[in-house]
Specification:
Structural class: mainly alpha
Number of helices: 3
Radius of gyration: 17 Å
Number of strands: 0
Shape: elongated
Strand content: under 5%
Largest sheet: none
Order of helices and strands: HHH
């Protein structure tokens, strides 16, 4: 049981890292926007959106497949 859960752990850690990166880049984007750094702002918002999308889809997939406690296969 424990081994099965440990094998599934990267399926939540990896999307969580992308979500955290997305939020941190979003923070950088807001600061850059307030500082009127237009080039940096566009890049930061684009990367933040990409990371949030990847992290969100990964988390959705992980939860849809049962999370750390997936149903037993027949």
């Amino acid at each position: 049981e424990t081994e099965r859960r440990l094998r599934r752990l990267p399926n939540i850690v990896i999307p969580a890292v992308f979500l955290l990166l997305g939020f941190s880049l979003l923070n950088v984007a807001i600061v850059a926007w307030l500082a009127e750094a237009i080039g940096l702002t566009g890049a930061a918002f684009s990367l933040a959106g990409l990371y949030l999308l990847i992290g969100g889809v990964g988390t959705w997939w992980f939860l849809r497949t049962g999370g750390l406690n997936p149903p037993d296969k027949p």
